[in-house]
């Protein structure tokens, strides 16, 4: 069960990473350079990384092998 | 607002940079707020779940799922914010540049000379728009399609500036 959950969690994080990369790409490619929109990118990435860390911590605390 | 990245021509300057009204952002953010509320409500009704799953396992799964849900909500909120900020309308003394960000991967950039403007129609079709002072503008240009700009603030100011520039360019 742990292996399956870990693979699914990995796919989710990978998908999230791709989507986040697309968002950041949009900001740097399409925003007018004079627009301070890019200043929001660093806080967004930092909060994302913190939440990924938190989710990984909680993932490790789930007793996966006792669920089924 | 000086916008040198637009590669303005000589004697051309930016008069107005418009984004959709903040009420539009608020309306679209309501989806995220509703989903956060729904997620918290779903997991906070513990009594029902405790009858099905062992409380220790349930609490650890809920903490894990909520952290993933928070990630999703963060990405969704940022996507809404980006879409709002990238949808911009720039009026210069010679051109009107309409950057229409319809979705994250759906974008259209239109540009036309103010000298080609024939007719401008503004409309404030709803009570909310009347209360918060924003509306839609349709610009008809000579030989081209109509340009519709939706839910922008300072409608009359924008119309006045465009008409003044148009008259100046045509004479």
Automatic annotation (TrEMBL), chain A:
Q: Where are the transmembrane segments?
A: 6-28, 40-60
**UniProt keyword annotations, A-Z:** Membrane, Transmembrane, Transmembrane helix
Mind telling me what this protein is named? Uncharacterized protein
Q: Source species, please?
A: Candidatus Ryanbacteria bacterium RIFCSPHIGHO2_02_FULL_45_13b
Automatic annotation (TrEMBL), chain B:
Keywords, alphabetical: Membrane, Transmembrane, Transmembrane helix
Q: Where is the signal peptide?
A: none
Transmembrane intervals: 29-49, 61-84
Domain (YdbS-like PH): residue spans on this chain = 89-161
Extract the InterPro entries matched here: YdbS-like_PH (IPR005182)
Give a Pfam family name: bPH_2
What protein am I looking at? YdbS-like PH domain-containing protein
Q: What is the lineage of its organism?
A: Bacteria, Candidatus Ryaniibacteriota
């Amino acid at each position: 069960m742990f292996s399956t959950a870990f693979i699914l969690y990995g796919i989710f994080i990978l998908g999230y990473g791709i989507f986040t990369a697309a968002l950041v790409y949009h900001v740097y490619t399409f925003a007018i350079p004079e627009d301070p929109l890019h200043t929001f990118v660093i806080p967004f990435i930092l909060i994302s990384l913190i939440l990924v860390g938190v989710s990984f911590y909680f993932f490790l605390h789930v007793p996966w092998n006792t669920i089924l | 607002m000086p916008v040198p990245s637009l590669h303005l021509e000589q004697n051309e300057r930016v008069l107005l940079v418009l984004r959709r009204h903040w009420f539009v952002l608020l309306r679209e953010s309501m989806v995220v707020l509703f989903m956060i509320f729904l997620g918290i409500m779903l997991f906070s009704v513990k009594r029902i779940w405790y009858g099905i799953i062992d409380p220790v396992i349930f609490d650890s799964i809920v903490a894990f799922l909520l952290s993933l849900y928070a990630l999703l909500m963060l990405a969704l909120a940022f996507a809404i914010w980006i879409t709002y900020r990238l949808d911009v309308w720039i009026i210069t003394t010679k051109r009107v540049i309409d950057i229409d960000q319809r979705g994250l991967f759906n974008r259209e950039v239109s540009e036309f000379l103010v000298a080609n403007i024939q007719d401008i129609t503004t409309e404030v079709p709803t009570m909310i728009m009347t209360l918060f002072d924003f509306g839609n503008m349709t610009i008809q240009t000579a030989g081209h399609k109509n340009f519709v700009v939706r839910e922008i603030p300072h409608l009359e100011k924008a119309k006045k500036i465009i008409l003044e520039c148009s008259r100046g360019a045509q004479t």
